[in-house]
Design goal:
This protein is mainly alpha-helical. It is 86% helix and 0% strand. The protein is built from 15 helices and no strands. Helix 7 crosses helix 12 and helix 8 runs antiparallel to helix 11.
C-alpha cells in the first residue's frame, strides 16, 4: 500500500490515471455506436490495419508523432472504405474482403517495421503504453474524445433513428449518408487516438466491451452511451490500481477488466432471465 501511495504521488502516475479515466470513458461512450451498428468485426479488422499505415508513413516521412498519427488514420480509412468498394463489385462478402485486406496489410506493415529496425516500437503500437504517452498524445486523445462525446450527445435522437432504420431516417429528412460516413470517420479517429494507450490489438476491446456489457442488462439504447462510458472509465481506473501492485501490463489489464465486467453482466442477465418466468407464474397464480 505504501508503494502504491508513493507511486500515486508521482506526476506520471497522476497523468496516467487521468488518461485511463478519460480515454476509457470516451471509448466506452463511442462503443455504443459500434454495438448498435453491429460493426465490431469491422472495427477489429481496421484496428489491426493501423500498423501498415504507421510503417509506410515512417518510411516516407521519418519517425515523428504526426507521421504515425496520419499514417494510422489513412490506413484505417483505406482498409475500411476499400472493403466496401471491393465487396460491392464482387460476389465476396465485405467481411471476407476486410479479413484479407487487414491481414495482408498487417503482414506488410510488420515486415516494413522490422526492416526499418523498429522492433522495440512494434510492441508499443500493438499493445500500447499509457505510461509513456506524451503530452501531445494525451491532448489528441482528450480533444478527439470530447468532440465525439459532444457531437453524439447533441445528435443522439436523429442518430438513434438512423441506426435503427436508415430508410425511415432518410424519409424524415435525416442525412443518412452523411451520418454513415461521419460515424465511420468518428469511430476511426477515436480508435487512432487511443492507439498509444492500448495499442492496435487491444483497442477493439475498449471500443466494444463497455456498451456490449450494458446491452446485456438494459434494453434502452440511450443507456448504451452513458452506461458504456461509465463502464469504460471505471473499468480502466480499476485496471490502473490492479496493474501496479500485480506488475501487469496496464493496457492488457484494462481489456481484461472490461472482459470480466462483460462476463459479470452476462451472468446477471442470465439470472434475470431465469427469474422472469417464476414472476409471471406467481402473478398468474394470484389472478382471480
Amino acid at each position: 500500500m505504501t508503494d502504491l501511495l508513493a507511486f500515486l504521488a508521482e506526476p506520471i502516475a497522476q497523468r496516467s490515471l487521468w488518461a485511463c479515466a478519460f480515454i476509457g470513458f470516451s471509448n466506452g461512450f463511442v462503443s455504443a455506436i459500434v454495438v448498435l451498428r453491429q460493426s465490431s468485426l469491422q472495427i477489429g479488422a481496421i484496428s489491426c490495419a493501423l500498423l501498415p499505415g504507421i510503417a509506410i508513413a515512417i518510411m516516407l516521412f521519418g519517425l515523428t508523432q504526426i507521421s504515425v498519427l496520419l499514417g494510422a488514420i489513412i490506413a484505417a480509412m483505406i482498409v475500411g472504405l476499400g472493403s466496401i468498394f471491393v465487396a460491392r463489385g464482387s460476389r465476396v462478402h465485405q467481411d471476407t474482403v476486410l479479413s484479407i485486406l487487414h491481414s495482408s496489410a498487417f503482414a506488410a506493415g510488420f515486415i516494413i517495421l522490422m526492416q526499418l529496425g523498429l522492433q522495440q516500437k512494434i510492441d508499443g503500437w500493438l499493445f500500447g503504453s499509457i505510461m509513456s504517452m506524451s503530452h501531445s498524445d494525451l491532448w489528441i486523445a482528450y480533444a478527439t474524445g470530447a468532440v465525439a462525446i459532444l457531437g453524439i450527445s447533441i445528435l443522439q435522437r436523429p442518430l438513434l433513428i438512423y441506426l435503427f432504420d436508415a430508410r425511415m431516417a432518410t424519409s424524415m429528412g435525416i442525412p443518412s449518408k452523411l451520418f454513415n460516413y461521419g460515424l465511420f470517420a468518428l469511430t476511426i479517429l477515436v480508435l487512432v487516438s487511443s492507439l498509444q494507450a492500448v495499442g492496435s490489438f487491444l483497442s477493439i476491446g475498449l471500443l466494444v466491451a463497455p456498451a456490449a456489457s450494458v446491452a446485456l442488462i438494459s434494453t434502452r439504447p440511450a443507456a448504451l452511451f452513458w452506461g458504456g462510458g461509465l463502464i469504460g472509465g471505471l473499468g480502466s481506473v480499476l485496471a490502473f490500481f490492479l496493474s501496479y501492485p500485480l506488475g501487469w501490463h496496464l493496457g492488457a489489464s484494462i481489456i481484461l477488466v472490461l472482459g470480466l465486467i462483460f462476463a459479470a453482466c452476462y451472468i446477471i442477465a442470465q439470472l434475470q432471465a431465469q427469474r422472469r418466468p417464476k414472476q409471471i407464474d406467481t402473478k398468474l397464480a394470484k389472478a382471480p
